[in-house]
Amino acid sequence: MPTGNDPAFSQPSPYRMDPLTGDLAYIVPKRQGRPNLPSTGCPFCVGGLEAPEPYDVFAFANRWPALPDGRAEVVLYTPDHDATFWSLGVPGARKVVDLWAERSAALGARDDVAYVLAFENRGPEVGATIAHPHGQIYAYDVVPPRPLAELQRHDPAAFADDAPGPGDERLVATAGGWRAWVPWAPTWPFELLLAPTDPVPDLPSLDDAGRHDLATLLIDVLARYDLVFDEPMPYMLWIHQRPFDGGSWPGARVHVHLAPSRRSTGTQRFVAAAELGGQVYFNPVDPDDAAAALRAVEVPTP
After folding, report:
1. Is the separation of the CB atoms in 56 and 76 below 8 Å?
2. How many domains, the chain?
3. pLDDT in tens, 55-100
4. Could you report the per-residue pLDDT of 162-220, keeping only the tens digit for each?
5. In a shared domain, residues 144 and 69
6. Do both 18 and 162 map to the same domain?
7. CA–CA distances in Å: residue 19 to residues 206, 243, 280
8. Strands (E), 42-155
9. Burial group, residue 261, by CB count within 10 angstroms (0-12, 13-18, 19+)
10. 47 and 25 in one domain?
11. Least packed by Cβ within 10 Å: which of 97, 103, 207, 239?
12. 117 - beta bridge partners?
């Protein structure tokens, strides 16, 4: 991995690796000029700056990209500005899943793309500057360190080792061939991992039933997040899948990480200096208790 001025590159690389920790940074000074909040109206509503025409779901190149050459996209989930993901219902959520898969395939087919990461930051507490329901997609020219570490550390049995079976206290919800559970060692209170029971490597490889089940499970667990404290839950969502670099990744398995930032009603969970400095995380909520609280929520039909 380049450290900033690798001789193999004709110009300084935007990637920089910390020589002490191995952490990777991508230097994007042009994003410093992006607006923090829209000055007039919502750019994601129909007729707005980014969505001039009617749409159901819509993906477009980010005007302030973190990655160049059209490799950073915004994904609009719905034209309804006041919706939540779970209020879309299964049909609406399925459209989002299909768009994630479509854009993963299209971006992954590019010669300059090695990995496609779909993600969402929901709520100003985790950095979302526009309330309209949306996520993003980054198409990297390398496999980023976190999914790479998962791929190198884990074999296909890793999910079987962590995933709870029927009756396990950490199991929260199921939908067809997908399960949602609190990980054995969660970094975030009420953290969830969603994965299919049968190995599927990436979003484009999900069949019709798999996409339906993923949409159904997302609706279920995201509703639980909003209802467990009876207030909107800020969260981070990201999807790990097989790299698109043409390599052999036999252990790759598509899965969804959900990291909510509340530890109790109105109380943020912050990552503090000891955690960043030591990379050992202190979770104040027992995984079994978190799962029990999420299971106890009665989820209404959207």
Report:
1. no
2. 2
3. 999 999 999 899 999 999 999 999 999 999 999 999 999 999 999 9
4. 777 767 889 999 999 999 999 999 999 999 999 999 999 999 999 999 999 999 999 99
5. yes
6. no
7. 39, 25, 20
8. 58-61, 72-76, 115-122, 134-140
9. buried
10. no
11. 207
12. 138
Close Cβ partners of 258 (under 8 Å, ≥ 6 residues apart): 191, 192, 193, 194, 221, 222, 225, 235, 236, 237
Q: Is residue 106 part of a domain?
A: yes
What residues make up the domain containing 2? Answer: 1-33
Helical axes 208-228 vs 89-108, angle rounded to 10°: 120
CB 159 within 8 A of CB 253: yes
Q: Which residue has the higher pLDDT, 302 or 243?
A: 243
Cα–Cα distance between 103 and 105 in angstroms, integer? 5
In a domain, 38, yes or no: no
Q: Are residues 28 and 47 in the same domain?
A: no
- Tell me the average pLDDT of the chain: 89
Please give the model's pTM, rounded to 2 decimal places. Answer: 0.91
Residue 58 contacts residue 95 (beta carbons within 8 Å):
no
Q: For this structure, is 154 an active site residue?
A: no
Residue 148 inside a domain? The answer is yes
| CATH number of the CATH domain containing 95 | 3.30.428.10
Rounded to whole angstroms, the Cα distance separating 63 from 78 reads 19
Closest of 136, 32, 126, 19 to residue 77, by C-alpha = 136
The residue annotated as part of the active site, out of 132, 134, 212, 240, is 134
